[in-house]
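User: Round two. Same drill as before: sequence, then structure, for each protein.

Assistant: Same drill it is. First protein:
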Amino acid sequence: MGLARASLDGSRGLCFPPGAVLDPRSLADRRDEIAESCRKRGVRADVDAVIAAQEGATSLQTEVNEANRARNEHQKAGKRKLEDAEREAFVAEGRRLKEAVAALETRADEAGAALETLLKALPNFLHEAVPEGGEENFRELHSWGEPTRFDFEARDHLDLGTSLDLLDFERAAKVSGQKFYYLKNEAVLLELGLQRFALDLLMEAGFTPIITPDLARPEILDGIGYNPRGEGTQVYSIANADLCLIGTAEITLGGLYADTLVDEADLPIRLAGISHCFRTEAGAHGRESRGLYRVHQFSKVEMFCFTRPEDSEAMHAELLAHEEKIFQALEIPYRVIDVAAGDLGAPAFRKFDLEAWMPGRGDGGDWGEVTSASNCTDYQARRLKIRFRNKANRRNEMVHTLNGTAIALSRTILALLENHQRADGSIAIPPALMPYVGRESIGPR
């Protein structure tokens, strides 16, 4: 993957690496912003080395173009009639120019590949409002509802799910291993009902429903910003196939428009993807990860949007509003947090998490993440080459991409069971969900 592409006349126009995550042309001008983003995120990257590599690659590309121009002029000169002695010298010079161009192109391609590797180490820029610090340094933006309290001893979702014959982790462990589970009886109706409930809300808001593949090529995962291979990956790879199980429909929805020039009139594009999600969850243990909170497989309805750059912040707020509307309808208390820089993934410019109150979590209840909404600006689009034609300036520009969890079924069922439990061990179904589940309560048995 070099910097250059061949044009019709044999010259090579400047073409930035297809895997570039930041615009190489902005590196020098925004050097301090990039360095600050790396510092706040705790990312080790030599920004000055990347800038030097970009300048070196650009310089080499200039040399390639100069050499090609000289070669083209030499070839044009050959159209006139030459004496034998002249022709022999002309052919020798042509051979020398051809070899010189080839050598320069090889160096330019190598420089482009090296630049691409360095660029991939750089995270996205940061929104100015993102709090500094790590996981515990989030900023709470607002909350809805009060933490649920009971006049009886509350039970966690595992106890409730087992007593009502809704969950079976023990048999699933025999079949598939730890952190897999069976949903049974009304839990199946809950999963299907929650899925359709969220989908109806999103379709009313202009989202196109899509059932995506559960597998994607590694280059699509890499383009979205997931590490499909190597140490620390959370991705399952398929043996004897160049495919990975997806951890979220964000991957397949973003990949849907890879290498595409989108019509500006079609923006924004709102997609609601239904998929299974698979995650290795390596190292995820402890009481807070019990049961449905952290599992290897679950189903999800994911929102994914493509917008013009100037519209992405408004779309970010819209995604969060849809998430809040869903959990308010389910009568599950929550808070919204602005995730700190050190807890952001590389693609995110800014991320909001919605944390639901979970009475069975920790000692006496605690908050647990149930949705996220991220604005990734042009970070993913640049890697996947998703552009639109700007009618105002007649240029091809990168779209902005955003993603948000409409509903992650496993954690939502967890929160629903724990918040709507009754003293007799039964579970009340929120009125908004009753038409989708077909009953007012589950149990008691």
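Second protein:
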Amino acid sequence: MNDRRPTRPMIEVEGLHKHFGDNHVLRGIDLAIAAGEVVCVIGPSGSGKSTLLRCINHLEVAEQGRIRIDGELAYATEKRGVFRPHSNRAIAAVRAQLGMVFQHFNLFPHLTAMGNIIEAPVHVLGKPKDLARKRARELLTQVGLADKEDAYPEELSGGQQQRVAIARALAMDPKAMLMDEVTSALDPELVAEVLATMRDLAAQGMTMLVVTHEMNFARQVSSRVIFMDQGMIVEEDSPEHIFGAPRERRTRDFLRTVLER
């Protein structure tokens, strides 16, 4: 288990609601993640886990609620249904604080690993190319791919592509990382190398909100585990309590199903 002591809130979510048509996907989510915490979100498919991450990063717009990043208001509903932030520039500023890694790697196929990593720092942050390349080499070494900077995505395994995607997110020097089922598209033998990279990030103190089906990772690395079902947080507690003595029947039923597979 990750035993770092939580400090100030890094991500705060209050009363978040999201609909897709008649489907009420998020039903009043309240969540606070402290700097340095690793919080894993588990639950059945369709429970709203990925939508929660996408709303935090403004890839989806919630209809109601507030989001703060490192104490700063990043999103809020106002009177007459007006949303904040109001501009694409403000949304980009929020996203720059949050690194997001997806289930599917979303690398640019026409760019090398190096090219993928430096693209945003150079064109979004305006960082000089030589400094961006230096940082990219450090990150490729960190994720175990120092010899792959000139490789194109099609020349990399799925696990290697996902590690490049993690390095690309880290290149923006985010305050927190959002990870959405980052191992679920990988062959089983490639999962371990990506989880090892995530464990290293956790050990370095990176704040992480991780949607995952990897129960051993959640049990061993997270500070807290959140169980979601039907758009609500049903239960949240330490890994010891969630996996050892969950309070809610829905949590027990879910864990019984996934752990018996």
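DSSP finds nine helices and eleven strands in the chain.

User: Perfect.
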